[in-house]
Amino acid sequence: SAVMDKFLRRKSLQMRDQQQAWQSSLQGRRLQEFRKSLPSYNEKDIILSAVSQNQVGHETAGDDVVVISGETGCGKTTQIPQYILESEIDAGCGALCNIVCTQPRRISAMAVSERVSVERGENLGESVGYKVRLEGEKGRNTRLLFCTTGILLRRLLVDRNLKGVTHVIVDEIHERGMNEDFLFIVLNDLLPHQPELRLVLMSATLNAELFSSYFGGAPIIHIPGFTYPVCTHFLEDILDTTGYRLTPYNQLDDYGQDKMWKMQKQVLRKRKSQIAFVVEDALEAASFKEYSQQTQDSLACWNPDSIGFNLIENVLCYICNNKKPGAILVFMTGWDDINALKDQLQTHPLLGDPSRVLLLPCHGSMASSEQRLIFNKPEVGVRKIVLATNMAETSITIDDVVYVVDCGKAKETSYDALNNTPCLLPSWISKASATQRRGRAGRVQPGECFRLYPKCVYDAFADYQLPELLRTPLQSLCLQIKSLKFGSISDFLSRALQSPEPLSLAGRHLSVLPVEPKLGKMLIYGAIFNCLDPILTVVAGLSVRDPFLMPYDKKDLAESAKSQFAAKDYSDHLALVRAFEGWKEAELEQYGYEYCWKNFLSAQTLKAIDSLKTQYLSLLEDTGVVDRATCNAWRHNEYLIRAVICAGLYPGVCSVLNKEKSVSLKTMEDGNVLLYSSSVNGRETNIPYPWLVFNDKVKVNSVFLRDSTAISDSVLLLFGGELSRGPLLNSKRIDIKAHQELLSAVQLLVTEDQCDGRFFFGRT
Ligand code: ADP
Ligand code: MG
Questions:
Q1: Any residues with CB less than 8 A from the CB of 280 and at least 6 apart, and which?
Q2: Taking CA atoms, which of 364, 392, 624, 662 is between 20 and 30 Å from 593?
Q3: Domain named Helicase ATP-binding: which ranges (predicted)?
Q4: Which ligand is located closest to the Cα atom of residue 397?
Q5: In this structure, which residue's CA is closest to atom 5 in ligand 1?
């Protein structure tokens, strides 16, 4: 269409004029200066020519791919997509290009798109936009889109060929997230059929060769970065050099002679000697093990948790009082640790003085306004201390960091293929991560890195972290492969960079629903038993996230708000259903926000649940199990809802034994288990039901169950699988006779084999 061509040409020229106007404006020139100071600028021409050269000749996939590596902060994420956009606009084809840059985390997609818009003198949503799940800022003229990898995958569901996309840039590939690995397989297949598509892979550290060879020998461009030297202290050095001076007591005296201080000093002194003791013990054990056994054992026996936060506190105190000005970046394992340490530091006699110290948390779930504070420079004389998760390792660059304190661990989901339990345990980082963390200290001047673990422990670290594909449940991945119609799962995954073990694949259950199989089963039961709507709420709630907010400082209030919804039902799932239904009513009456505020609910999450319910419903209707006229006839029948929840969650079941003042819970595989206090059953001292079914368990020292619903014997017998064979049932004697009638009725309907559980109920 000539009209369209003409329109696009005019649009492109418009974009070029606008870009040139900005680049010659005062503010534009100033930002231009900053951008030119970044190391990536020196490689700009090489990068652009490598990216565009791929256009000619497509003999192998490698011709369409460029791998770029460079130190964090050198300007990969904010600059390279921008170079491509600018050069397309300069060439007068701005309106024709369509660049997609993926980020592993929503927070970086949002932050980076905002930054690039600023550098281009535009509002977000003009030529640059972002899209993450359930949120986005994208306009008709958006030509560069930052999105999460998940968003691009979902787009591939409906648009296998990525029609119209000219460039795909996959960022942070060194992290080896599952979504990224999955995307690689799809893109590797897609490239030969899609000559217009160029692929750019960006990575922080130097395992670029792996990706290059996977994509048929793609060229690698390395951006040389300059970092100042960083001096490394291992734990033994920290103790040696700072030794009993970890907390500089002599300086404490400068701050006041009053009694208060003297008392504090004594407390500190006592605490310090305890720390020294624990550290020495652990060191001895660790180095002993190193010589006597395999190095892996020294990792196992060296347990920094036994030192707690006090060591970190002391090191921070030492830096604050003995070292030149400069921000401190502390790497912690997770959000809860960060909050707890922050609380502890706020009462510290030296660090607690708010006029001298600026304490800032930094983790994935914080708001973007909170995030911006991290980039600000503090006033002169104020020490900025950022408490961060491993997010600050590569995706966020804080320019004024001079000191890094590294606890050596990170929380990652790992997956045990044998007993199907995702663990959220802090585990040791890799050597690559440790180097990356250390590098954060040398961006503006020579820095120092305090590693709170001994050298022998470091030596036993793996070189690189295990890819997520190899350590997480594959169910949702398998479902995606199936819905993309890529054929055999093991075939498909065998084409991955590194493939998971066959054992992980063997136990797969699949369905057309984009949810975990057990939740898909729950939905189908909900439809069959005509209580679909509340079950849709439960499943959507489990797939999005918990809408009940548990603010750290108002936990008790929040927990009691939640328990009101349970009204002695002993069910988190029913509490969710009630909270959701209450919110829907409140929305109709225009007081949805007050309702959420009062009840510690996240309106955003509830909205997400609502929209997911609609999606699930339409998918279910496609499968033909939903009868619109009757599917909600029993929506208020709690017994039925409970039973359907059980059908879905089985074999996630534990037995309940009420003791005098507490409840003891057991599962077959784990023995004793505990409930999170945020569960409505978590604080109960008596649960008048023999069983709890649960969705999820997490191993953190002990095994914890998340949301649970109490059920009766007969529900378990009828809706749980493996009726007579369940050793769990034998372990707790059920009066089978009392259920005999029920059982024989069921036996009329099913043969024993089918009792195994799945889909044996007919429409009648
Ligand atoms: P890389 O992706 O190579 O790690 P980035 O492109 O994210 O690097 O960042 C390059 C530089 O841009 C950083 O060193 C920092 O100085 C600056 N920068 C990035 N994001 C922001 C921001 N939101 N605000 C201010 N400066 C930023
Ligand atoms: Mg980056």
A1: 239
A2: 364
A3: 57-224
A4: 1
A5: 75
- Three-state DSSP at 357 gives strand
Q: Is 127 in the pocket of ligand 1 (CB under 6 A)?
A: no
Give the integer Cα–Cα distance in Å for 529 and 644.
8
- What gap in Å lies between CA 149 and CA 191, rounded to an integer? 17
**Which ligand 1 atom is nearest residue 399's CA?**
16
What is the β-pairing status of strands 447-451 and 401-406?
parallel
Long-range (24+ apart) CB contacts under 8 A made by 489-492 are 492/185
Whether 413 and 472 have beta carbons less than 8 Å apart is answered as yes
CB within 8 Å of 297: residues ≥ 6 apart = 289, 290
Taking only the tens place, the pLDDT of each residue in 95-123 is 999 999 999 888 789 889 999 999 999 99
Q: Rounded CA gap, 490 and 711, in Å?
A: 38
Are the C-beta atoms of 477 and 415 separated by less than 8 Å? no
How do residues 181-238 score in pLDDT, each as one tens digit? 889 988 988 888 888 899 999 988 767 888 999 988 899 999 987 778 899 998 777 7
Distances (CA, A) of 606 to 219, 549, 595, 601: 46, 11, 12, 8
| Alpha-carbon span 97 to 173, nearest angstrom | 23
Residue 658 identity (one-letter amino acid): N
Assessment of whether the complete model's pTM goes beyond 0.80: no
d(CA 76, CA 115): 13
Segment 685-707 shows an average pLDDT of 87
Q: Identify the three-state secondary structure at position 107.
A: helix
Distance 443 CA to ligand 1 centre (A): 12
Three-state SS for 348?
coil
Backbone angles phi, psi at 462, to 5 degrees: -70, 155
| Pairing of β 65-70 and β 198-203 | parallel
Q: What is the pLDDT of residue 88?
A: 95
Does the Cβ of 78 fall within 6 Å of ligand 1?
yes
Distance separating alpha carbons of residues 225 and 442, to the nearest angstrom: 11
Cβ–ligand 1 contact at 399 (below 6 Å) = yes
Residue 410: band (very low, low, confident or very high) from pLDDT cuts 50, 70, 90: confident
Of the candidates 676, 684, 686, 665, the one whose C-alpha atom is nearest the C-alpha of residue 707 is 676
Total residue count of the chain as it appears in this document: 764
Residue 76: CB within 6 Å of ligand 1? yes
Q: Which residues contact 361 (CB under 8 A, 6 or more apart)?
A: 338, 339, 342, 370, 386, 387, 388
- CA 623 to centroid of ligand 1, rounded, Å: 47
375 lines ligand 1 (CB under 6 A): yes
Q: Is 167 in the pocket of ligand 1 (CB under 6 A)?
A: no
Query: Which residues have C-beta within 8 Å of that of residue 712, sequence separation ≥ 6?
Result: 689, 690, 691
457, 286 Cβ separation under 8 angstroms: yes
Q: Which residue, among 464, 468, 401, has the nearest Cα to 434 in the 3D structure?
A: 464
Classified as helix, coil or strand, 358 is: strand
Pick the closest to residue 482 from 515, 521, 510, 502 (CA basis): 510
Q: Going along 598-744, which residue ranges are E strands?
A: 653-658, 663-667, 671-675, 691-694, 697-700, 702-705, 708-711
Mutate to test the pocket of ligand 1, among 30, 105, 115, 120 (most ligand atoms within 8 A of CB): 115
Tokens 């900025």 belong to: 384
Q: Cα of 181 to ligand 1 centre, how many Å?
A: 25
CA of 442 to the centre of ligand 2 (A): 17
